[in-house]
């Protein structure tokens, strides 16, 4: 017997309803670039969504630059991406999006020198730049170098605390024999809306990067970090608005030395998107690259990140398990998780081994496994069946 095939996802931004998962999903237009990595998202005041990422031939090469796609409110598809950056001498990476007090979208990203013979990683030459858009991400102005100190890297967008303080998580890369193992976490703090910044270091944080800062209560902050040892997501706390931090400590969540994304939800829970895999034999102080970046999970915590009783695999990939089968999976990595004003959760990540960016829309109830009406998740007349 022959069965009709469901329409597959295509790299054109069309949003489909996945009845199996109970979610909405799309593959964003690639813009014709062979690779895509490290997406970031932002909801605009009018309800439009932006997603940006870095694209080009290969991470670290000078043709890598930042591009941005727009999803107009209630639209059925993401629009083709437009260029943000275009420095011919630097690899522009790890964008984040922030809506500034000047009513412009700020794209913050790293810009490192092109590869040099005998050196595969030039992250120690990176600076942090900012480009702005005043028309909702359709066009972008010239770049400004915000943090010129070489080796500065970033991933999470600027966070605004309840006091009005801005905090921007960085890590500092060096050209060392230990490679990426020595990268410590640092925070840029501004009390004048980004006009001036000062740096605060996290103690004993070598090899702990991609810090995601969340305010649990007034002045009580927590940061969740990628671990270069590929062992566990780590956690640090501050009780004084980010002035001082505790030494990073492991959480129960595995980490495969890949990026994570954490956000405080409207319910008060914290959600973390990550790859739930790790190396079984971590070596203290040594970077490990186990390779498996699949599946993508979302975990929920109600105690500030000490325990995570609820975990759901949102991207199952090819579904192969075990050491002998792991190479059959493609990579689904570097998730960005956000919640829009209507309560919906939005997840984007590099998909199909960086062939492009995949986008999912779901709710907190979907992660919890609770039945609920699909009202408010999406305009049901706009999404196609998948």
TrEMBL record:
Q: Where is the Sialidase domain?
A: 47-347
List the Pfam families hit by this protein, alphabetically: BNR_2 (PF13088)
SUPFAM superfamilies membership: Sialidases
The lineage's top-level taxon is: Bacteria
Q: What PANTHER family has UniProt attached to this entry?
A: BNR/ASP-BOX REPEAT FAMILY PROTEIN, BNR_ASP-BOX REPEAT FAMILY PROTEIN
Name listed for the protein in its UniProt record? Putative neuraminidase
Q: From which source organism is this entry?
A: Lacrimispora xylanisolvens
